[in-house]
Design brief:
Blueprint: E1 2-6, E2 9-10, E3 16-18, E4 21-27, E5 38-42, E6 50-60, E7 78-84, E8 100-107, E9 121-126, E10 137-141, E11 148-157, E12 164-177, H1 178-182, E13 190-192, E14 200-210, E15 212-213, E16 218-219, E17 224-230, E18 233-240, E19 267-268, E20 271-275, E21 286-292, E22 305-315, E23 324-331, E24 349-354, E25 360-369, E26 375-383, E27 388-392, E28 417-423, E29 437-441, E30 451-457, E31 467-473, E32 478-482, E33 490-496, E34 500-508, E35 533-537, E36 543-548, E37 554-561, H2 569-572
Length: about 575
């Protein structure tokens, strides 16, 4: 363990800063742990409070990996981050000889053609709900050896929104056949007795669909409804489905582009959190039942399966009535998970969170480049306790089109910092100001000339009809549009724009980019087709940006066009 104390804390590859605070870093597996995927590690003792616990999960492709001949594993596999302890075993349950609880489930990316970068690709995952288990000596496993793994836990000292008293499986993790779930042969109703010491409760459900049964290949490729029922009343209904078209881990070697049941290759399985407190009556025992949409009895889909983890988290009272936080900065950022959203030239995007018991209805957000001009935005909405939302902020002065040579740090330039700070929740004083402000590191902006060429090589078999191209200005007005393309064609279209800030967008309605349909090579090889391409060129034909062909839903770029009569960032470098 290492203990770091700064007025500003660098959260490793998260590229975010929180001020002030005391962060403890627990290093578990490293890139040198080539094949070791389980070990006992020293975590902090149960003597201090932590406002948040973050898991930094970094994978790297490397020829030393033992799983197969590829630097990153060829196939998409379920991998699990688990804690093992005999204390997790129920006295009447002998299902597992060695009981565990799942912290997270990650699906590995397709490794062919995959490059996760020289430092790997990092995912940031909040594991604060597992605080009681991340104490003392922890028996931990993660990954499967397809990629190198570096796994860190960041314990951020402070008062949590509510103290976690316990976390436990209601049913042990299992992989269940769809038919058995729908026929109520597994995950049958369970009588749950809430702890008398707890005041608030959360139900965590982590479900991923797998298998290829029936005409739609259930349950990996089919969206089904899932339900929670308390005392015979349905209290929650949600669909297990994940949009993969904007996956930041791309290009990959397989069918990574297409939506799936709760996961995408190269992502964590989504966890569905449900606040149970409003549905419980005076801490009385309650009958909890899980249900799933009935299967079609005629098409064979019932043979698919779902991997399921269901956990109950019990907490104390909320720590604060008013506690607004900036929980993330999506853009500008150099965070791996947000590379689709960066670099930027237009609106900053942040995530705010209500960690106070009072519903958050108003707040003031201050933001801009550190040491630059400060912008102010008055937010209105309705965020319940523990609720989150993304906020697109008005465009600030990025210091790109007319930079101040005496203040290079006050520009959207590689390595400079952006901040966002939230204040005055519900026009009152925030009771916990430690989480109000967050900072990020910005990446170099994209600079284009006033005139450039869009070069497009389209697909065949009617697939070009899925494509369209647009350019938007800072007011979201369309200043260029090419709504329709023909098959098997090459376009070189000149785009002329005035100095300003813009967004280029090339869309594909089928979310498969310009890639050939290689997955048809066995069933219909004559319709595989050829890969297309998308580039932005200077008027002399030299390359500005090469988007490739395998980007799924869209290829986009926010950029600036400087006034040639005003010195810009490129002139300063």
């Amino acid at each position: 363990m290492r203990k770091l104390l700064f007025w500003t804390i660098f959260l490793l590859s998260a590229h975010l800063f929180a001020s002030p605070g005391d962060t403890l870093i627990v290093q578990t597996f490293t890139f040198d742990s080539i094949a070791t995927r389980r070990g006992v590690f020293a975590f902090p003792e149960n003597t201090e409070d932590y406002a948040k616990i973050i898991m930094v999960y970094t994978l790297k492709c490397d020829p030393r990996t033992p799983h197969d001949k590829f630097d990153c594993g060829e196939w998409d596999y379920c991998t699990y981050t688990r804690i093992y302890s005999p204390n997790l075993l129920k006295p009447t349950d002998t299902t597992y000889k060695e009981p565990f609880i799942e912290l997270a489930r990650f699906i590995t990316p397709y490794g062919i053609r995959l490059d996760l970068g020289p430092n790997g690709f990092s995912w940031i995952y909040d594991v604060s709900d597992y605080a009681p288990l991340l104490r003392g000596k922890v028996d931990l496993s993660a990954g499967n050896g397809q990629e190198l793994l570096d796994l860190k836990f960041l314990f951020i000292k402070g008062t949590p929104p509510r103290r976690v008293l316990s976390v436990k499986d209601l049913w042990f993790y299992s992989s269940d056949i769809y038919k058995d779930l729908a026929d109520n042969k597994v995950k049958s109703a369970l009588l749950v007795s809430p702890s008398n010491e707890a005041s608030t409760y959360r139900l965590k459900t982590r479900i991923s669909g797998h298998g290829h049964f029936g005409p739609e290949n259930c349950c990996e490729w089919v969206a089904k409804n899932h339900y929670w029922i308390i005392n015979n009343d349905t209290i929650d209904k949600w669909k297990i489905w994940r949009d993969c078209g904007m996956n930041p881990v791309y290009p990959q070697g397989g069918t990574w582009q297409f939506d799936r049941a709760g996961w995408c290759p190269g992502t964590f399985v989504a966890t569905h959190d449900l606040e149970l407190t409003p549905f419980l009556e005076n801490k009385k025992p309650f009958l909890l039942d899980y249900a799933i949409q009935p299967y079609d009895t005629a098409n064979g889909e019932s043979g698919g399966n779902y991997e399921i983890a269901i956990q109950l988290v019990e907490y104390g009272e909320p720590s604060f009535k008013r506690d607004a936080a900036v929980s993330d900065i999506i853009a500008p950022s150099i965070k791996d998970e947000y590379k689709r959203d960066n670099p930027i030239s237009l609106n900053p995007i942040i995530e705010i969170e209500n960690l106070g018991s009072d519903t958050l209805k108003t707040a003031t957000i201050y933001y801009g480049l550190v040491n630059g001009s400060v912008s102010e935005y008055h937010w209105e909405g309705s965020l319940p306790f523990m609720g989150k939302c993304r906020v697109s902020l008005p465009i600030p002065d990025w210091g790109v089109l007319s930079p101040d040579p005496a203040r290079p740090e006050a520009s959207l330039k590689k390595g400079n910092k952006f901040f966002a700070e939230i204040k005055h929740p519900n026009q009152r004083k925030d009771k916990n100001r430690i989480n109000n402000r967050l900072e990020s590191i910005v990446s170099s902006p994209a600079i284009l000339p006033q005139s450039f060429i869009m070069e497009v090589k389209t697909n065949s078999f009617g697939r070009a009809a899925d494509n369209s191209a647009s350019v938007f200005d800072e007011n979201k007005n369309i200043v260029f549009s090419y709504p329709q393309f023909a098959d098997d064609s090459t376009y070189r279209i000149q785009i002329n724009l005035k100095p300003g800030a813009y967004r280029f967008l090339f869309s594909d309605k089928n979310e498969d980019g310009l890639i050939k349909h290689w997955w048809l090579r066995n069933e219909d090889p004559n319709k595989v087709g050829n890969n297309g391409s998308l580039k932005l060129l200077n008027l002399d034909g030299s390359l500005l940006f090469d988007f490739g062909y395998d980007w799924a839903q869209e290829a986009s770029l926010e950029f600036f066009i400087p006034d040639p009569n005003i010195p810009n960032l490129q002139d300063q470098e």
